[in-house]
Amino acid sequence: MAIALSGTANAGTASTPASGSWESTGGVFVNNAVDGKTNVLVAHLSLKIDGEVDVAYCIDFSHDLSVNAKTYDEKNWSDATYPTADALAKIKWVLGHGFPSETATQLLKDSGSTLSPSDAMINDVVYAGTQTAIWSFSDPTKFKLGAYDEHESGDKRFSADEYAAVSAIYSHLTNDAKAESTDAPGSLTISPASATGVVGAKVGPFTVKSNVGDATIKVTGGKAVDKNGKDVTTVADGGQFYVEADAVGPVSIAATAEGTVPTGRIFVSHDAPKSHQELVLAGTAGVPLEAAAAATVTAAPSPSSPPSLPVTGAQTGLWAGIGLLLVAGGAVLVMVLRRRRVKFVA
C-alpha cells in the first residue's frame, strides 16, 4: 500500500488513516531471559486492510491483543503509547532490516546463521527473530531473548538449530540497529522556488534534491532543457535544468519521484487503545513524492534604434564641408592666376 505524500518532502502516515483487523496464523514459543519464562508465544500476526493482508508486529509486550474486538485504527508514530521515541527509532530500523523487508535467505546470511532457508519452520524463525528484536526495544525491562532449553519439546517449539537461527537474527537486529527517523521517509525539492526570464531564453537553473532516486520533470507553459538546450524529462539528485518558453506568461514546474521505505504504520485497538497491544506494519511500500516551482516569462526588450546626430554636430559638419570647398576653390583660383600670368599696370 502506498503512502501518499505531497509538497517538498513532507512525510507522515497514509493520506487517509486506515482501519483493519488483526489475524494470527499460530506461533512458536521462545524463552525470556528477564523472568525465566519459557512459554512466551511469538504469534505470527498480520493486519487485513482493504482486503490486503500485511505482516504486522507487536510493539507492546505488556498487553494482550483485543480478542473480541479485532478492529485496529491507524495512528502516527508520535501517537504510539508505550515505546519511547528512541525505541521507535530503533524499531523503524529493525523493520527495514528484518523480515519481510529482507528475504529469509538474506536475513539468515546477514545474521551469520547456518540454518537452511528450506527449513520447514523458516517463516516462523525469521518472524520470531524480528519480533523478539522489536520487543527488546519496545520493552527492554520486560523482555530479552533467553537461551535454548534442550528439555523443551512440543509442536510449538523450535529445534536447537532453529532456535540458534532465531538468536542469531535477534543479535544481528539488536546489535546493529541504528536510530532511524520516524518522520521523513523521503525528500524531494526544487530550488529556487521561482525565477524570471525572457521569451526564448533559458530561465534558471533549477536544482533538484532527492534521496529517493531520479525525479521526473513536467513543465506546463514551456519545456525543461539542460544547459545546452536539450530537452530534459528526468533529473538526478543534485542535477540542474532550465525552463524555456515561446510565449509570455507563467510556467509551472512539477517534479515527482517514487521511493521505497519500510511502511512502519502504527495501529491501535479501536475499542480500548490503551488496554491492548499496539501493532506496527512491516514490509515496504512505495512513497510518491512531489515538489513544485514556477517561472515567469516576460517579453524580450525591443532592439535599440541607431542614435541620431545632435543638431550642433550636423551644423558643424556642414560648415566644415563648406570650408573645405572654399579652400579647394581658392587653390584652383591661384593656379589659374598663375597660369595666365596677368600683368597689372599701375
Describe this structure in words.
The chain is of the alpha+beta class and 346 residues long. It has 2 domains: 19-183 and 262-284, no CATH class; 188-260 and 290-298, Immunoglobulin-like (Sandwich), CATH 2.60.40. The protein is built from 5 helices and 15 strands. It has helices at residues 85-97, 104-111, 122-138, 160-175, 311-340; strands at residues 19-30, 40-49, 52-58, 71-75, 188-191, 194-198, 203-210, 215-220, 223-225, 234-235, 240-244, 249-262, 266-269, 279-281, 284-298. The strands form 3 sheets. It has a 6-stranded antiparallel barrel. It has a 5-stranded mixed β-sheet with strand order 6-15-12-8-10. A hairpin with a 2-residue loop joins strand 2 and strand 3. Helix 1 packs antiparallel against helix 3, helix 2 crosses helix 4 (160-175) and helix 3 (122-138) crosses helix 4 (160-175). It is elongated, with a radius of gyration of 40 Å.
